[in-house]
Specification:
By secondary structure, this protein is an all-alpha fold. It is built from 10 helices and no strands. The chain is globular and about 50 Å long. Keywords: Membrane, Transmembrane, Transmembrane helix.
């Protein structure tokens, strides 16, 4: 398990899209954190989702999933290692990007966002294990966030991203709803990872 997690983290750090995304989100998050802590919270959540989708999705994009599952036949263990790796990357990036939020004395906001980031990372990684196409998934989630949750739900409905935003703002009920969404997607992912790799 430790070897799998170490391998995932090494892959993220050495693939160009991985470290470029980490540097970009860290820098952009720091900039947002300096000017507006709420904007930083939104970017942190979306960044956590993006990074988690990237950790899992790159295996399918670069066709290394075939080799990974040949070497490690226990797909659930592989998924768990990807979830843990996604959480480590997302929390590390968000914690770093929020240093200026802490410097401004917004300790509660910083803590609340860091609390919801692991949930967002699990949601993103599990979603990527189901869909297997990172670009399609991120475009779909962007459309869902803007039109379904933003326009129709007005960011108040108990839907995934609204719950993540509420949880990041310190709302305990929002945090529980976000955790429920992540758990639901994770259950689907555990079933979906068993399907043939050629089916994506």
């Amino acid at each position: 398990m430790i070897a799998l997690i170490r391998s995932e983290l090494y892959r993220v750090a050495t693939i160009r899209s991985g470290w470029v995304s980490i540097v970009a989100f860290s820098a952009l998050g720091a900039l947002f954190g300096w000017y507006d802590t709420d904007a930083w919270g939104l970017l942190a959540g979306m960044g956590a989702l993006w990074l988690a989708v990237m950790v899992v999705g790159q295996h399918h994009q670069h066709r290394t999933a075939f080799l990974l599952y040949l070497a490690r036949t226990n797909r659930v263990l592989v998924l768990i290692s990807q979830l843990v790796s996604s959480i480590i990357v997302a929390v590390g990036v968000v914690a770093t990007s929020g240093v200026l939020v802490l410097a401004k004395g917004e300790v509660a906001q910083y803590r609340n966002v860091l609390t919801v980031v692991p949930i967002m990372a699990v949601f993103g990684a599990a979603s990527a294990a189901i869909v297997r196409r990172a670009t399609w998934l991120l475009i779909g989630y962007a459309g869902w966030f803007v039109f379904v949750e933003g326009v129709v739900g007005r960011l108040a409905a108990p839907l995934p991203f609204s719950a993540f935003l509420n949880g990041g703002a310190g709302d305990r009920d929002g945090l529980l709803v976000a955790a429920a969404w992540a758990a639901g997607v994770l259950v689907i992912a555990v079933v979906a990872i068993r399907r043939d790799l050629g089916s994506h």
